[in-house]
Protein: ABC transporter ATP-binding protein
Organism: Sphingomonas kaistensis
Amino acid sequence: MTPLLSAEVAAPPRLQAMRLEILAGEKIALIGPNGSGKTTLLRALAGIDDDASSVYIQGESLTLVPPARRAKLLAFLPASRDVRWPIPVRDVVALGLAKPDPARVDQLLKRLRLTDLAERPIDRLSTGERARALLARALADRPRLLLLDEPLSNLDPAWALRTLDLLDGIASEGCGIALALHDLSLIGRFDRVWMLDHGRLVADLPPAKLLASPEFASVFEVEPASTGWALRPSADRRSSP
């Protein structure tokens, strides 16, 4: 099967060279300790900061497509929710469209339960509400590939699960998704997991195989426990004074 995304990226010393693929409809969880390179990788795949000449989406080079076409191929949602624009939520969502489409904006406001907030300036929303509005903007032009950096941060548990359900539906329509997250309990919702450590891709596995792998235990220094996760004894000894 021809991949939706085919990329060779590197951003030394932050990110070592790696080759990656995502199939249409595939959901990838991107995990790793703080500073492992998750944000750098997503920005490299989005063609931000680094050369994207080796990033192809549906066989099209990301550096060669015009802006309107790029919006149809790719949307990148950064981790920051710090928005200072006094712009109504409705207009923020519309910024994600290459051409005006009020019906599409209304659809997304409804799907993310933002209709009652549509005329409120986005800088007056809570962090979780802003996260939903910015996700709506990323989804606006129905991109073929979504690159999402910590989209579940600042969301309460119900909205985190609603967001994952929404992404399941989008993936079922053929959209590829790569999503960085810290909550390891959620990786079972994904098809594959990319695990980074010190800027290297150390594993690309289905969730169950990843959790049982020695690479996972080594990188995260935790093991399953009745309460969720517990430090591995060796990791606990290393952190002792």
Notes: The longest helix spans residues 157-172.
